[in-house]
Amino acid sequence: MLALPTAVVVYCFIVAAVFLGLWSYYNRRDHTHFESERRRTTFHCIRCDHLYTAPAGAETCPCPRCGYENARLKF
User: Fold this and answer.
1) What is the number of structural domains in the chain?
2) Are residues 31 and 47 in the same domain?
3) For position 13, what pLDDT does the model report?
4) What range defines the domain where residue 6 resides?
5) Which parts of the chain are beta strand (E)?
6) C-beta of residue 59 within 8 angstroms of C-beta of residue 72
7) Domain check: are 52 and 27 in the same one?
8) How far apart are CA 3 and CA 62, in angstroms?
């Protein structure tokens, strides 16, 4: 059987490890979600003059307003 001060220290380390693990998991999850939202390709419809975005890597995408297939906007 562990002495009371030793048991308290072990309990505190276990609680700290759980909180550190949860913080690390949610930090990585939120960072991945943020990066996927940030990396988008911008399109400009030449038919209806609408600006819109699509997931990264798309070279052409139909306009959500009129359906015209547009090439990505290059800066």
Assistant:
1) 2
2) no
3) 98
4) 1-38
5) 40-44, 51-55, 60-62, 69-71
6) yes
7) no
8) 69
